[in-house]
Amino acid sequence: MPENRPVILAACAAALALTATTACAPSTGGGGEGDEATVTVWSWRPEDAAGYKKIFAAFEEANPGITVEFKGHKNTEYPTILQTGLSQESGGPDVVQLKPYGPVQAFIEADQLVPLDDKVDLLEWPEETVDAARGKGDGKLYGVPFAVQTFSVLYNEKIFAEHDIEEPKTWDDMVSAAKRLKKADVIPFATSGKEPWVLAIMRETLGATRAGGNGFAQEVLKGEKDFTDPDYTASLKTIADLEPYLPPDSTAVSYTDAQTLFTSGKAAMYPGGGYELAPFRAADPDLKIGSFDAPPAPGAVIDHPLTPGFADGSYGVNAASGNKEAATKLVEWMATKEFGSAFSKELGQISAVPGVTPDDPLLAKMQADYADHGTPYMQGVYFGYGDPMGRDAEGAALASMLLGDASEKEAGEQIQKEISAWFKPEE
Amino acid sequence: MIRSARSSARSTRGRPPWWVLALFLAPALLLYSLFIVYPLVSALQYSLFTWQGTRPLGFAGLDNFTRLFSGVYGDRLWRAFGHNMVFFAGTMLVQTTFGLAFAVLLRRARWGRRFLQTAYVLPHLVSPIVVGYLWSLMLSPQFGAVNAALRAVGLDALAQPWTGDPALALPTLILVNAWQWIGFPMLLFSAALAGIPPEYEEAARVDGATAWRAFRHVTLPLLTPAIGIVTVLTFVGNMNILDLVYAMQGSQGAPAGATDVLGLLFYRTAFNNPDPGAIGQASALAVVMFLFIFGVSILATGYLRRKEAGLR
């Protein structure tokens, strides 16, 4: 039936057009040039919608004619949705929240984001923060980082007081506190051995001093050392040696279980990021949380505590946006202290904008610690640019160690093998 | 002569003109082409290109495929493949066997047949993501009901880290999956059993066969076509499994990759992958999976057809 082919094709096109238009809210608003424009912002944090509404109100007031529409997507589906959204000819987002470091590269390489070097000035910002939004290949800037996350050991102040424990100054203090807690039927450290990324964060939080902090990372980047280095594998063992103080059957503990262990008072300490504070306080508003940096681990290369940190992501402009001018204006504004303060206040996080201090004293302390003795979160900042990602390789190897299936030497070899599948040191 | 002419006239008169047929076939064909054939063909096309994000750079030949099978990527692929095969074997052992047993027992049930049939099929209605979430709550070592119940009755030794022990995690997933899908083989076997005249088994019983012998040598051989269909469909389902494993063990197939399956590997390669060439890699994996599943299904169906022909 050759006569039928055009009909089928036309129907095909019609069906395609139908699915495309109904699936995605168009954001072509007023057309862009001046008068009226709606800037659609896509994010993987729907829980922040109310906060962003307040934050963007100030921008809308200062820029009459521009309306900002925040659209939160489900965290786990966001990578897929963003991939489709940025590939659309029209009707996609104007401003997009981008995962930091490695995961943003595919969009940069496909020219789907607008370079912002001549639009925003981030010279005052720390290198490792800005790197979160830089193209690995061309070194250009494609986003404005919004938050900095730092890692430390969060603890339940009430439990510490009940057992007469103070913030430990040495590793031995910390381990003897853990022993005392365990004897009293309190789980010393809550963590999730089921999620490789949680284990990788635990190693960074407690073991960065043992491996050598940023110095070690730089040596690996130059090819002088690799992940079989004895100081690095010893930092893996630092974590495995804490196994008696982790929740029983730690490799079966999920991320939400680990959070619940801490918020329910079953566990006293939680090695993790400042981003946990908001959900912890939401789970129990009366929870008194303190935070300390892990003391240098036995045999540590660095003789003082370290606060690991990284940029949590950035906001960039969709190259296919019909509202580039207004979108760029919004992203430029996101680099100002006005945005930084509002962001920190409304969403309870450390703003990436330098000079903005969070109102929350605990976050302010984390920020000050990071400024004073910070170190880049190695696996996230430097080894997240290929498949498999460093944090996943490290976390899986740590799980094997916790299960007693691998020695630290074998774990180091496995991590090196996986990361070197894509990572080549600088010549 | 007259009769045959009349019947042929009737058959042409009874058949609607081609354009009516086309009109009725078009919607299904259109949707099928759009959502099945088109993605399949485009995946094959994508797998032959090098990619820079969402932009194809150039023809890559079989590069994506050779990378898939080499080094750490090959290790991951074979490990995931092995887990899929274990999953299939375990599911056949548990889900199909018990599905058949339930179907046979329900046929003989005097009361409660309707209720039990509905009860066994009910978990079908729940999304695997939800099933996975519920079971991971129940199996949680700290807060879960399963271990709490075991400890409450003094069976502490049986309270295991079900999803955290590499030796237990995959069998646990197989059991949870079987819990959800057991109604499916049961329904197919029930339908097949209903098609077997009871006289066959009665005759065997009259001749002195025990219930087991009558089932083993009369009923079971007659179920061969149904067993074949269940086997092929279970195989296809298990090779493609993703949602339940993702919900219970995360995208990395915890612990330490002990439950990584091809579906998860594909998900990670396609959507959790900072490599700009991810689309080519993921498409190559999809093509390999499709060819394998399709090939095995064709061979198995052919083999079963011959077996069925032997029964007649």
TrEMBL record, chain A:
Signal sequence bounds: 1-25
Q: Where in the cell is it found?
A: Cell envelope
Q: Extract one GO BP annotation from the record.
A: transmembrane transport
Q: Which residues form a coiled coil?
A: none
Kindly give the Pfam families that the UniProt entry links to this protein: SBP_bac_1
**GO terms for cellular component:** cell envelope
Query: Which coarse location class applies to the principal site listed for this UniProt protein?
Result: other
**What are the protein's UniProt keywords?**
Periplasm, Signal, Transport
Highest taxon above the source species: Bacteria
Show the InterPro entries listed in the entry: Bact_solute-bd_prot1, SBP, SBP_1_CS
What family is it from? Belongs to the bacterial solute-binding protein 1 family.
Query: What protein name is recorded for this chain?
Result: Carbohydrate ABC transporter substrate-binding protein (CUT1 family)
Natural source organism = Murinocardiopsis flavida
TrEMBL record, chain B:
Query: Which residues does UniProt call coiled coil?
Result: none
Which compartment or compartments is the protein found in?
Cell membrane
Q: Keywords for this entry?
A: Cell membrane, Membrane, Transmembrane, Transmembrane helix, Transport
Kindly list the biological process annotations in GO that this record carries.
transmembrane transport
A single GO CC term, please?
Answer: plasma membrane
Q: Where are the transmembrane segments?
A: 20-41, 85-106, 118-138, 178-197, 218-236, 282-304
Q: Which residues form the ABC transmembrane type-1 domain?
A: 81-300
Topology with regard to the membrane? Multi-pass membrane protein
Q: Does the keyword Membrane apply?
A: yes
- PROSITE patterns given for it? ABC_TM1
- InterPro entries assigned: MetI-like (IPR000515), MetI-like_sf (IPR035906), UgpAE/MalFG_permease (IPR050809)
Q: What family is it from?
A: Belongs to the binding-protein-dependent transport system permease family.
Protein name, as recorded? Carbohydrate ABC transporter membrane protein 1 (CUT1 family)
Organism whose genome encodes this protein: Murinocardiopsis flavida
The organism's lineage is: Bacteria, Bacillati, Actinomycetota, Actinomycetes, Streptosporangiales
